[in-house]
């Protein structure tokens, strides 16, 4: 980039590097306002325990979530009252509800993403589908391909039960496919619901209240490819390098099981501490991939899966990040809750929206010419990160192009 007062130079992608060409999202129709969730949840599950109600009220306030979308409705509960009874073998009913929902949402998110991309669906050569909300074969990747009218020759990959790190893992896999198949265009789709984990409140499983207070449903989509076509495709981000680490001995920190009554899972109280303890080493390795080992984290952009406010707070403190660096993550958590693998797509969309707003502001200040300074060069680079079962760290070093 140039000096103060100069127009911004065009940021071109490196040849052969995967770029994000479009983003999309979709949600179920049911919007839940956090301030009304407690009363609705206890009414729908026919529970009047004041102690549990008070606990959920406290949890809802601590999550910072304001709104969420969910598949579960009063209509579904009326049709399947057994879902409100603890210990009932309801996994079949839950899977049927969930699988219909994730396919519908994934198709909607992908269609919007392809429309934003601007090329026909027939030009998609590869499909990566991510979900922890279904268990069937053929898998949701096939139903998604069929729903979008993709060519029968499209090459499909499905990633299952990766939890919150699934979205970034999907980006990593899609990046590898795009860079190793010249001319390819990869569609990544994620879709999740909380239907499998929905439980009535119980003193025997108070942790289920965390899920009721924090998690949301939805879908996300990304089109990726290397060497964008000038004048046809608009690259948003270049995915420069990707790494994955798991932490030995932490398998039980994020623990889940598919049982006869759905998914039962537990997040260890020490999860934020575990993440914080390995964060700097992981970030150093990722930035070294581009020779940015000495870069200030405060100069970079951050697209972090918002597993919860405690994780974001510890990241901010440990890395010395200014509050605005995690603004997109906190905004996604506020608006959608923790939507598992989908959430990173929502974070990336907010980052691009914030970038566009800032560009318009600077262009206006420059009288129609986009002004910048040297300090902004570091903010071209950023980290896309998520943490999931394992405990697994997923990270991508990215560069803004738009």
Automatic annotation (TrEMBL):
Cited SUPFAM superfamilies: Thiolase-like (SSF53901)
Catalytic center residues: 164 (acyl-thioester intermediate)
Domain spans labelled Chalcone/stilbene synthase N-terminal: 12-228
GO molecular function, one term: acyltransferase activity, transferring groups other than amino-acyl groups
Chalcone/stilbene synthase C-terminal domain ranges (all copies): 238-400
UniProt-listed InterPro entries: Chalcone/stilbene_synt_C (IPR012328), Chalcone/stilbene_synt_N (IPR001099), Polyketide_synthase_type-III (IPR011141), Thiolase-like (IPR016039)
GO biological process: polyketide biosynthetic process
Keywords: Acyltransferase, Transferase
Gene3D superfamilies, per the entry: 3.40.47.10
Keyword Lyase annotated: no
Similarity comment: Belongs to the thiolase-like superfamily. Chalcone/stilbene synthases family.
Name of this chain's protein: Chalcone synthase A
Organism: Anthurium amnicola
């Amino acid at each position: 980039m140039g000096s103060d007062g100069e127009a911004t130079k065009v940021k071109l992608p490196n040849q052969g590097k995967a770029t994000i060409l479009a983003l999309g999202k979709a949600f179920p129709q049911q919007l839940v306002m956090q301030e009304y969730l407690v009363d609705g949840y206890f009414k729908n599950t026919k529970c009047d325990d004041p102690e549990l109600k008070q606990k959920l009220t406290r949890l809802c306030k601590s999550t910072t979530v304001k709104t969420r979308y969910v598949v579960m409705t009063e209509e579904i509960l009326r049709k399947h009252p057994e879902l409100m009874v603890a210990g009932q073998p309801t996994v079949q009913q839950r899977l049927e509800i969930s699988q219909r929902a994730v396919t519908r949402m994934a198709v909607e998110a992908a269609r919007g993403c392809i429309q934003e991309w601007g090329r026909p669906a027939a030009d998609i050569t590869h499909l990566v589908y991510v979900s922890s909300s279904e268990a069937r074969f053929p898998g949701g990747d096939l139903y998604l391909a069929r729903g979008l009218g993709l060519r029968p020759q499209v090459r499909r990959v499905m990633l299952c039960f990766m939890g919150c790190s699934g979205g970034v893992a999907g980006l990593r896999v899609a990046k590898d496919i795009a860079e190793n198949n010249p001319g390819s265009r990869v569609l990544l789709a994620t879709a999740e619901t909380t239907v499998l984990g929905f439980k009535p409140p119980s003193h025997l499983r108070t942790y289920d209240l965390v899920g009721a207070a924090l998690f949301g449903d939805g879908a996300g989509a990304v089109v990726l490819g290397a060497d964008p076509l000038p004048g046809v495709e608009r690259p948003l981000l270049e995915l420069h390098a990707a790494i994955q680490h798991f932490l030995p001995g932490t398998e039980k920190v994020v623990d889940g099981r598919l049982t006869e009554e759905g998914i039962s899972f537990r997040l260890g109280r020490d999860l934020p501490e575990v993440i914080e303890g390995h964060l700097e080493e992981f970030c150093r390795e990722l930035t070294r991939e581009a020779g940015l080992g000495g870069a200030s984290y405060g100069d970079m952009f951050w697209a972090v899966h918002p597993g919860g406010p405690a994780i974001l707070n510890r990241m901010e403190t440990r890395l010395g990040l200014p509050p605005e660096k995690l603004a997109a993550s906190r905004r996604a958590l506020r608006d959608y809750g923790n939507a598992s693998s989908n959430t990173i797509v929502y974070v990336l969309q907010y980052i691009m929206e914030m970038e566009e707003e800032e560009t318009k502001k600077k262009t206006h200040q420059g009288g129609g010419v986009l002004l910048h300074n040297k300090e902004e060069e570091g903010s071209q680079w950023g980290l896309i990160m998520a943490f999931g079962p394992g405990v697994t760290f997923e990270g991508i070093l990215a560069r803004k192009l738009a």
